[in-house]
Amino acid sequence: MSSVDLHTQYSYQVMVPEAFAIVVAPTDNSRSYGIFRISDPSGMSVLKECQEKGSQFHSHKETVNGSPIYEHCTHVYTNSNLRFEIFDRR
């Protein structure tokens, strides 16, 4: 997730702790999307202390315990029988 993605997700997770992000990468040939959440409390603490603007790309400091700032959501169930299409309308 980019720094912009992280700050957007942070604002959702502060309000709704169970929130997760679906990140679509149309140019990534290895996979078309990923489901992530900010690690709590480690990643949430890093983003809470970040003084950079969320609308600009930037790097973040390491978490205190060395864990990743965000993680793949392994607890989210995806149903491959449901139809889901993405349209790029640019």
Automatic annotation (TrEMBL):
One of its GO terms (biological process) is protein K63-linked deubiquitination. GO terms for cellular component: endosome; membrane. This is AMSH-like ubiquitin thioesterase 2. The lineage of its organism: Eukaryota, Viridiplantae, Streptophyta, Embryophyta, Tracheophyta.
